[in-house]
Structures are given as C-alpha cells and as structure tokens.
Design a protein that fits this description.
Blueprint (H helix, E strand, L loop, with lengths): L4 E6 L9 H5 L5 E4 L6 H7 L5 E4 L11 E2 L2 E5 L2 E5 L10 H7 L4 E3 L7 E5 L2 E5 L13 E8 L2 E8 L2
Parallel strand pairs: 1-2, 2-3, 3-4, 6-7, 7-9
Antiparallel strand pairs: 1-10, 5-6, 8-9, 10-11
C-alpha cells in the first residue's frame, strides 16, 4: 500500500479565509479551490498551507490570470475534475456525472456541502468556506487518495 495523498478541497471563500482553515487543511499536499475565490489575498493565504490551484466562479473577476476555467488532473491514479458548477446552471451530481468523465468531480456554487457516490465516481462539494450564508455551517473537505482509490471527509469550520 502506498502512502496516502491528501488534497484539500475548498470553495466559495468570497474573499475570506477563516483562521480555522489552517487547521482543517493542515498537512495537505495540494489545495483545489472550486471558485468564487474573490481576491488574491485568499490565494496568498491558502498558499501558506500548500500549493493552490483555483477555478473561476461566477463572482470572480473575468480573466483573472490566477484562475482557470476548470482543472483536470490525475493524482495518485485518480482522475479529478474541478469546476465551479455554475456552467451547468444548477449543479447536481447527475449533471456533473453526465458532463465530466473523471472519477472525482469537485464543484462549489451551491454553498451546500455534499458527498455523492455513484459506482466508481465521487462527486464532492466542500461547502462554502467564506462568509456564512443560507444558515449553512462553513466547511472544507479533505480528499484522501490511496492506491488509485479516493475517499473524502467534510470538515466543519466552526
């Protein structure tokens, strides 16, 4: 068995990095941000934890050079797709699974944390890590990859 690779998943920071994010994502090797970053300060702060790759959300400035439209990577034998989700209208696990072929699909936009498994596919919304909205507890997620298999844990940001 190979050593686990742990990837931090975060979304919808909307210009805020809560201090508890540092503890929640401690030890991750990479952070994938699923959009609505809303400021370079967020990316700078997160990069103190681990390297960050971020996609653009509907609230981000169009053409921001630090944000891409989507991320497609293979990490530890697991294919991963990250997008904000707004490109699908209202993102749902079914829409994401139909649109993207990767094993792990990460999105944001709805602010609602979600873990959905369908056969060998995993759909994850880490929830909104920024200002509290819609009476939803802010959260992030930790994606653990071991020997080509992925599992995820949601981490509330108290």
């Amino acid at each position: 068995m190979s050593a686990p690779i742990i990837v931090g998943l975060i979304s919808d920071t909307h210009g805020q990095v809560r201090p508890t994010v540092h503890d929640a994502l401690a030890g991750v090797s990479l952070i994938l941000h699923a959009g609505d970053v809303c400021g370079d300060e967020v990316l700078d702060e997160l990069s103190l934890i681990a390297p960050v790759v971020a996609v653009a959300g509907n609230c981000d400035v169009p053409g921001d050079p630090r944000l891409v439209q989507q991320v497609e990577r293979t990490i530890g034998g697991v294919s991963i797709h990250v997008s904000h989700g707004h490109e699908l209208g209202v993102p749902t696990p079914a829409r994401l699974i139909a649109a993207y072929p990767q094993q792990v699909l990460v999105f944001g936009h709805t602010h609602c944390p979600l873990i959905h498994r369908e056969r060998d596919r995993l759909v994850v919304n880490p929830g909104a890590a920024g200002p509290r909205r819609f009476d939803i507890v802010p959260s992030v997620a930790r994606l653990t990859i071991v020997d080509g298999s992925a599992d995820v844990t949601l981490v509330p940001l108290g």
